[in-house]
Write a structure and sequence with these properties.
The protein has 104 residues and is mainly beta. It has one domain. The protein is built from 1 helix and 5 strands. A 3-stranded antiparallel sheet has the order 1-4-5. Strands 2-3 form a two-stranded antiparallel sheet. β4 and β5 form a beta hairpin.
Length: 104
Amino acid sequence: MGIAFDTLEVPPVEWTWIEQEVNGTTVRVPVGRIIWPEGTRHGTSRYARGASHCHACGHAIGNPYNWVPLVAQTASGPASLWVGADCARNLFNVDVSGQAEYLR
């Protein structure tokens, strides 16, 4: 991919609130939308096989809430990486807490 590792970062997230029913009670929950830099290319890692493999190491991620979005500069412009929390921490020194929850 030709990543410039010194440019690796977590992309900004725009937060809004929605109301959602949980066990018969309406609660407000935060919803984040990733703001990818303009022109970001997705799925360019050799490990980007389907939606279940870490783009850094190729390992299958069994926990669907264990993903960390990253963006880095390449010679062709910005590229996204979806990596597991372990790789984010151990390879890129990006520590996250909690788990993502995805709305459909």
